[in-house]
Write a structure and sequence with these properties.
globular, mainly beta, single chain, 4-stranded antiparallel sheet, about 110 residues, about 0% helix
């Protein structure tokens, strides 16, 4: 399984971006999907996720601003990010869990200027 993330870039505070993550390979038994981010000098953190049972969760810092979604027909997941803040600046990674295996995208940089 391979994940290809895209959609990052430079945006002003208050702006929006949509990240995409296209999966290829055998994705028939996905347990969970999620978006993580890692800011300079900080640990990677979960931003948004969808469990195998379809339960969606968000980090408190992004609730009401970010939305995670999936298009199963396209094997693609998205992260819509609105009202971006400078503290959202980070490398964003997509992640899927299939069985006991964890797969990561290559990361896409989001920079929010003040």
């Amino acid at each position: 399984v391979q994940l290809q993330a895209s959609g990052g870039g430079l945006v002003q505070a208050g702006g929006s971006l949509r990240l995409s993550c296209a999966a290829s390979g055998d994705t028939r038994s996905i347990n969970a999907v999620g978006w993580y981010r890692q800011a300079p000098g900080k640990q990677r953190e979960l931003v948004a996720g969808v469990s195998g049972g379809g339960i969606t969760s968000y980090a408190d810092s992004v609730k009401g601003r970010f939305t995670i979604s999936r298009d199963n027909a396209k094997n693609t997941m998205y992260l819509q990010m609105n009202s971006l803040k400078p503290e959202d600046t980070a490398v964003y990674y997509c992640n899927i869990i299939i069985g006991i295996h964890n797969y990561w995208g290559q990361g896409t940089l989001v920079t929010v200027s003040s």
